[in-house]
Structures are given as C-alpha cells and as structure tokens.
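User: Can you predict the 3D structure for this chain?
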Amino acid sequence: MISESRHPRSAIAKDGFDAGIRLGEFIAADMVAVRLTPSFRFAIVASPAYLDRRGRPKAPQDLHDHACVRMRRSSGAVAPWRLQDGGRPIELAVSGPLVVNDFPTMLGAALGGVGLAQVPEPIAVEDVLKGRLEEVLTAYAPMTPGVFLYHSGLRQVLPKLRAFIDHVRGHPADVANLALKPGHRLS
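Assistant: Here is the predicted structure, written as structure tokens:
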C-alpha cells in the first residue's frame, strides 16, 4: 500500500503503509527516495480574463492586491506561497476566496477565472501554450527537486514494493504523469 503525499511522513510505517509519495523537499533525511519526476518549477498562473480584470502583478508584493487560490496542508494549515528572488527564498501569506486540497482543483480555479494559482509547471504548461492561462512573476518561480516515492528502508522491502520500485525505475514516464517533455517550459 502506498500513502499519498498528504499523509505525515513519520507515520507511513506505523500506519501500515509501505511507502509514500511527496515533493523531495518534504522527505526526511533518513528515508530512501526514488525519483518519479525531474525537477520542475512552481508557476503562478491565471486566466487571461482574470488578468484583464485585475491586472498583472509585477513583483511579489503585488500578490497582496490579488485573489490567490491557496492550498490546505494535511496539518490543516494554509500553505504560504514560495517564491525566489535572485536565489533567495521568499514565503508569502497570500489571501483569496478559495482554499483547495489538491493541485488539479487549484488549476481548475485558475482556468475558471477565480484568481492566481501557484501550481507545478508541468500541469499548467498545456493550458499556457494554448492561451487558456498566462504565467506571471516568472522570474520569481521557485524550483522543486521533483516528486519522489519514499520508504523507510529500515526493514526488508516487501516484494510488491520492490516490483513497483523496479517498474518506476524502468518506466519513469509511465508513472510520472507530471514529467515535462524536454524543451517544454512556460517561460
């Protein structure tokens, strides 16, 4: 059994899970990690209609004047938006009319004109290329190491998990539906 990324990392074995899937920066150092996707950016996107109505932010502080779709963490806390300014990390507490639990819902809200959304670039790239979304604050987009399968490695890996790990390593594109095709970037 595999736990989703919202499951607390320290509880996967205790709660009977063999492994979990989460962003690389959220995996404890004592876990064994298997890459599922390449590194990718988190892009801030919105529909052209929203941007025509509310304007395009030019700097991170402009986000305070916008409706931002936010993400609720498994702990119940609302996640801040992470940005970079010349390699320096920035965290912003943004506000907006909608708090969601997953990135597809956040992307759908952006497509529907609810506001700005900060999403993994791979899930937004097609909508940006087709003009349904526009990226803003591109220079401030942070990178993430990617998505990983992780497990404790403290006990012998069960055959079903070993088979899955071997499949992932042999067919990463089949498993990693977030993986970007080479050359596809929003900016």
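Residues 88 and 140 are 10 Å apart (CA to CA). The chain is about 20% helix and 25% strand.
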